[in-house]
Amino acid sequence: MTVTEDTKVEMLSGGDMLIRALSDEGVDIMFGYPGGAALHIYDAIFRQDKVKHILVRHEQSATHAADAYSRVTGKVGTVLVTSGPGATNAITGIATAFMDSIPMVVISGQVPSDKIGQDAFQETDMIGVSRPIVKHSFMVQNPEDIPEIVKKAYYIAASGRPGPVVIDVPKDLTAPNVTFEYNYPDSVSMRSYNPVQKGHSGQIKKAVKAILAAKQPVIYIGGGAIHGNTPELVTKVIRTLGYPITSTLMGLGAYPSTDKQFIGMLGMHGTYEANTAMHKSDMIFAVGARFDDRVTNALEKFCPNAQIVHIDIDPTSISKTIPADIPIVGPAESVLTEMLPLLEKGKGKIDQEALTSWWVEIDESREKHGLYTQNRFDDKSEMLKPQEVVQAVYQVTKGDAIVTTDVGQHQMFAAQYYMFDKPRKWVTSGGLGTMGFGIPAAMGAQFAFIDETVVCFTGEGSVQMCIQELSTLKQYNLPIKIININNQALGMVKQWQDMNYDGRYSEILYEDSLPDFVKLAEAYGHVGIKVTQRDELKGKLEECFAMKDRVVFMDIYVDPNEHVYPMQIPLQSVGDMFLSKTERTA
Amino acid sequence: MSRRIISVLMENEPGALSRVVGLFSQRGYNIETLNVAPTEDESLSRLTLTTMGDDYSIEQITKNLNKLIDVVKLVDLSEGYHIERELMMIKVRAIGNAREEIKRSVDIFRGQIIDVTQTTYTIQLAGDAEKLTAFIGAVGEAVILEVVRTGVSGISRGEKILKL
Ligand SMILES: Cc1ncc(C[n+]2csc(CCOP(=O)(O)OP(=O)(O)O)c2C)c(N)n1
Ligand SMILES: [Mg+2]
Fold it and tell me: N or C: chain B end with fewer CB closer than 10 Å?
């Protein structure tokens, strides 16, 4: 680094510029893994101390950790990988972030410019491979452009509908021996990218009218309701209206789950009361939710009587699957801010009598088949049930943990039985459903909040997909708690095989090959605890969570034959569900 | 289902075109014709494509195109009065009596012969897609050696413009 005397212009190499730009952007942590094409960048990391780099054990984990870091903080996660296999290993995590609209910047090393296109060692067309799963991507062509590209990348990732952005950097452009003038731009403007800042006021007025006129309303929130001040606004709107509210898997926590107006998650494994209310509703007010197939079930049978009011920042999400009667394109935060006083002013118009009988109906549903009025699983059974494991963790952590999950039955049980009263505490791969997400995500979340309790609900299948991160957890002293709901099978697949393939268990069992997870945890320097009995569950969990500074791997054996219910009946309406192995809605 | 002409103004940057094309293949939309070239402002490209779709899929296509970071503006030309043109160069076998006959067809269609050998003509013809197809029919497949078409370009009539 040289500073020329008279002008005070800073001269930096491409590699130094990149890391400096990250630091000027406010990045304090990045997750990554080195390799040939990224070596100049790694050298730049070594020579500074502003941006901390976390060495993971697999690039997939770097992306999940950065993704979770973003989910719990609201900031943009940052990843650095090398070219070729480093870049391709990051793909699953980029796709995961893309599907859940998580802001993230992934910097990938690339072979030197003059080798591109020659099938050089570790050359992969990262821009091409990642194209369908990024919000945008940049291939750096001149080192001078690096600061501006970094600025744009973070701006694009975080604004509008957030998403991952890739910056591919050929090695020669980061070489230490050539330096350039460094200036980090204060602001960025792009003529081709201007995300909407505000909803259409006329549409908002129309929406308010429809919302106030409803007799059987449901408010349906999604991942878009997590951002900024939206959770508080949603809560105010709900309190003002007195309406029931449901949430997608992604929106959990934006509205307090323990509140009486919350009727539970909706969709494939949503509650009976939420799915039934949706189906009968005459007005659905969707906020930052996208009517995806895990919610709607058969589109042509979806909510036959409902008028649809839909706020979304992404116009492509509106009327994509379900036509919106009153669409509002804009950030939920600003739209709700504009709506709230109008709703307050007009709330006298609400038909209270209709609303009361609507609540009576919903409360009857809750009593009849609701998940929270009584246990809908056999809590006296010989073997532990996965549901009670989640309930027990909820109690022991006082509902205050940051919870990450893997994918499968355990994920759905976690969504159903861990109650989230605050946003950004629930970290799950909803859109892509990525097994392997749980541990790296917990790692990213724990980095963000080192003093908070971070729990990873996983299954013995998923946990083995990124288990190597037990080593990273050791290196950085990240005391996450792993709750392995061990049903000795790829349980969710097994459930489908039970329900749709006459119990032909094709490739879901491990025979006797499962590792001793207690020993495995110990081999990595952590604590492992095995639980098999109901009467030891609470005590062992308390023991686990008392170990504030240790990673604890709880290997909890549960009934291998349990299914997740409710479960929507394929090709039917939102409200058609299997309620247990023997019951279904009419 | 109807044929639409979508005209896109986008950043003249590497990768921009592949994002547009990728969008179509990824979402199962079909591109019938496509052309792209820089505008008078070198930093912008104008891309014109034709596609078949119903109102729903065209709405999805235009929304998704607009969502691409590189896309500045776009217009569905088929929504209003517009002019469309396509350029074709066609090389035909031209010997003996056929030479006169082909020349007559070229005149009728207001084309030009732009290259001649003792056995071939190369003809240039501009017009809408239908006219070009009609010409191909008129000269007859038998004599055609090679056909090159640029794909449709279009512009709105009157005051309406697609500009920054
Ligand atoms: C990477 C990946 N591969 C395959 C799947 C399909 N899949 C969904 S759930 C599941 C079973 C998960 O088993 P486990 O982690 O033990 O959880 P359980 O369902 O038993 O609770 C599988 C294979 C997936 N979601 N992700
Ligand atoms: Mg399992």
Answer: N
